[in-house]
Write a structure and sequence with these properties.
alpha+beta; single chain; two-stranded antiparallel sheet; about 15% helix; four-stranded mixed sheet
């Protein structure tokens, strides 16, 4: 998308505290991850064709796959009825989107006992991909 058209699209969106939620799903409908975008990361996404997110913890823009090589190429962009969240259909490069080693960040299911149970198989070893920077989340 041209930068002029990208700016036109961004100007129609509602950002809360400078951010807008962005859901990334593959072309068969599996939700891979949810992140946030600021205007700059969304403009980068729209003009490059690859997903860029804003990290709230690191307070910076990052391109999905910049460390792992597992990029997300944008196939389609949708906006919800209130113009305050985005849904991207992406082509996920590599074995997965989740930094924990899974295809999707939604690899666990809530059980009736109130615990999370893994329902997906690991696709890659995150320590090999991310090195010492990898932090396990419980």
């Amino acid at each position: 998308m041209s930068s002029v058209n990208a700016m036109k699209l961004v100007s129609k969106l509602v950002f809360k505290n400078g951010l807008i939620p962005a859901v990334a799903k593959n072309n068969i409908g599996m939700v891979l991850m949810i992140g946030f975008m600021n205007k700059e990361s969304l403009l980068k996404t729209l003009t490059t064709g690859y997903m860029h997110y804003y990290s709230r913890t690191r307070k910076k823009i990052w391109m999905k796959g910049e460390e792992s090589g597992f990029k997300q190429r944008v196939l389609e962009v949708r906006v919800n009825c209130e113009n305050n969240s985005l849904l991207f259909t992406v082509e996920q490069e590599g074995p997965g989107a989740c930094h924990m080693g899974y295809e999707t960040c939604f690899y666990r299911k809530a059980s009736p006992r109130g615990v999370f149970k893994k329902v997906e198989e690991k696709r890659f070893n995150p320590r090999k991909v991310y090195g010492l920077k990898f932090k396990k989340i419980s």
